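A reminder before we start the practical. When you read a complex entry, don't treat the lines as separate problems. The point of joint prediction is that each chain is placed relative to the others, so the output describes one connected object in space. Small molecules and nucleic acid strands, if listed, are placed in the same frame. In the example below there are three entries. Take a minute to note the order of the lines before looking further.
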Amino acid sequence: MSALKPKHQRLVLVIVAVIALIAAGLLAAYALRNQASYFYVPTQMIAEPPAPTQAVRLGGMVQAGTLETMPDGVTVSFVVGDGEEQVPVRFAGILPDLFVEGSGVVAEGKLGADGTFIADNLLAKHDENYIPRELEDMTAAQVEQTVLETAR
Amino acid sequence: MIRRWYLWLPLLAFVGFVVLVTSGLMRPMEREVVSRMVGKPIPGFALKPAISELPGLSSADLEDGRPKLMNIWASWCLPCIAEAPQLEALKAGGAEIVGVAIRDKPEDVARFLAQNGNPYSRIGADDLSAVQLEIGSSGVPETFVVDGDGIITYQHIGDVRAEHVPMLLEKLEDAAQ
Amino acid sequence: MIAELGLAALWLAAALAGLQLIAGVQSVRQPDGPLASLARPAAVIQGVLAAFAFLMLLWLFAQTDLSVKLVAANSHSAKPMIFKLSGAWGNHEGSMLLWVTVMALAGGLIGYLERRLPEVTMQATLATQAFVGLGFYAFLLLSSNPFERLATPVAEGMGLNPLLQDIGLAFHPPTLYFGYVGLSVAFSFALGALLTRQVTPNFARAMRPWVLGAWIFLTLGITAGSYWAYYELGWGGWWFWDPVENASLMPWLAATALLHSVSVLAARDALRAWTIMLGVVAFSMSMMGTFLVRSGVLTSVHAFAVDPERGTFILVLLGIYIGGALTIFALRAGTVQEGERFTATSREGALVFNNVMLSAILAVVLVGTLYPLLTEAFGIRVSVGPPYFNPVAAIFTLPMLAVMAVGPLLRWRRDGAKRISKPAVFLTICVLLVAVLVTYLSNASLLAILGLAFAAALAVGSLLPLRGRNLLRTPLATWGMVTAHFGIAVALFGMASESAFSIEKLVAARPGDMTEVGPWKITLDGIEPVAGPNWTALQADLRASYKGGSAITLQPQSRTFWSPERETAESALAARWNGQLYAVMGSGIEDGRRQLRLWWKPFVPMIWFGGILVALGGFLSLIGRLTADLKRHYVRRRSAERREDAQV
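Here is the predicted structure of the whole assembly.
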């Protein structure tokens, strides 16, 4: 190891660093191909179902009237739709804060062989409110009204 | 200079990063779920009135030959307050606006209208977001342009700002043809 | 009036930054030019003015002056004073003003105090600092003016949201900002040294306290952020590899690498170009973190008010500063003389190895964070989570930990592997022993087993540099290193233990039901309604007893807020010395049962204690360096005086 020719030490260090970074990049690229979870909407999931071993995400709206709790009390089932197709989902756990029928949801998990999506995790993503960019487009009177409403 | 080629690698990587995020910024925000219903006829529904003073809303009301704006809103939604003056402006510009109040209570709706003005000719109460879901809206406020035959021709996501008013009026005019 | 004073001070400060830039550039070109003496005073006055502007904003918030838009939007007269004040920086405009203020104060401090470097380098450094500052002034004054008035004052402010009245939220963002600003100073030093070809040990010594300080704040910020997510999100996890979390981790990784390479440069005059490079990278990572969080190009589980326009502004600044710096680097770094040499088995060799590993981890995290953006360009939406980050980062982390355990035992410049073979063999046995033991006793995953094994070895290895030393005479900086390395071992132990031994249970329980989670027996005593200022909640009374011991009460809540209507789950924690019990209550079921999610997480608090230890190590090191610098300064002055006396 100590046989590094002193003359080329800097070049050697640079090459070591570049090789390590390229290795990191290649490793990352390889791992990303296998480990990144792809995002599906119900229509895509029906058309090209992912392999049952592949972790994916399913996004859509929780269809009204489909949320049910199983007899064990901790497993829930519901249907996620995108306006065209629908996918049944099963999930054991505590529903996230923003989760209600009719809200948008992203479910992480795998598609079971029977066509039911088994979710490990749910993200209720869409806030019902679009965040107003600023108050600047409101007149002062409106701000006041809003304030009164929120303070009440 | 050839021997120092590697000194340019960091800059190269950085340029790649900037190109990537710039393209990311340029792309329209994907979190806005665009309805698949645009260009399709509105599904059949009949909503009861949200307040006693105004009639409710059914899909038949949207097929009476006159194009309309259908505003999805709620009294509990802050941006809806922000867009109220723009709705008034649209009404003044000749638009007929019908409302769908999402998961709301009659007294809240009445108070909201008393405070922010009432641009609506009809308001249906959508207590379970059923209609909202069927027409592919994922939040409030959203505004749909529906032509005289009940076909959805345009969807505006988020609050209507002053700069959107002429554009929406134009869409409405297009829908009339 | 107060708001106008603040705004005027801000404009003046910006003008002084302009003057500082011109004076700095002038005097680099022409060291005895007419403006040469102006850069330092400009930096000092600029710092004072920016601080004044920030004080004015604090004053406005303390008074709840509702004619100012920012106050009206973010404060309320009924808030406790501490939250009124923290409201001043708890929003975009105020936080940018805080950023600018800290940056100007830092510039003023180096302008006033730093005398070790050649004057021309200092001028270039101050010019760079002013150039960076100007961008932020422009951002602040043109697009996010915190002092803007409302046409008509409102009757009451809008910021009574109790969700935001959280002491953690009040101090978390400024902690990260201090870190980012410290890295901006390091960036200025690096460019100043590069532009004037003065990449010397003295430069490293001048830069080191800023890097150390930044690193301490970043460490604390990440630790606090992780605890907040653990406690607040109610998912039982402490790190989600979320873009926002990665955005705070990446500057930390770069700063850690920079910290170590600066030490090599200061002690041994090696790694010159590499240190400059890291200085640029560390600052670019902190700006990129801000950009990713604010622009919303990546979606995150943490709620942030995103604004693409502001994101674009930060991106433009990022492009100018980092693109410019990297171009200068490419043009100039070739002319920086190669530093002192060293062999592979030396302290430098070990530090270089770890620097490279840290850079590789940084690359892995960066690639993973940006990958969704890349695929989205091709219309495919993906998300990248723990299944990618954990193993890939571990591939580079484990060798780094191994070298970290023995590296401090090596001598500078040249050492034989033989000298450290004994401790190395001892530590290897340590690793194997723990690994075998854990594999035998539990069904932990491979990563968790390796984590526990390396944590044990690193804990022992990190203490070895103290062996055979007089502990009272050991320099503070060495204590700092030992503490920080030990802290990493402690945190790693917490992480691996959480992953290996956590027990999770999901039940639907009626009042009176009893359930077991690991060593705990938990009884649901009842569920009762409670009310808060703008929410009502159902609160579960859980009686938990550890191995039959006396019971403690946990009260997780399921809260319903009104206006806007939403439900949140408030988790409840019970901490013992050997772990935490974590309870979340879910929704009710028609038959009267209630969902409960319970975790027993052995040793999980070690993660955050470790983080605090790491920061403490940095602090000890900083104190040690600063006192050493002061002593050296004092001795030099004394000897200079003596020389003068002798001449007389």
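Discuss with your neighbour: The mean pLDDT of chain B is 82. What might explain this?
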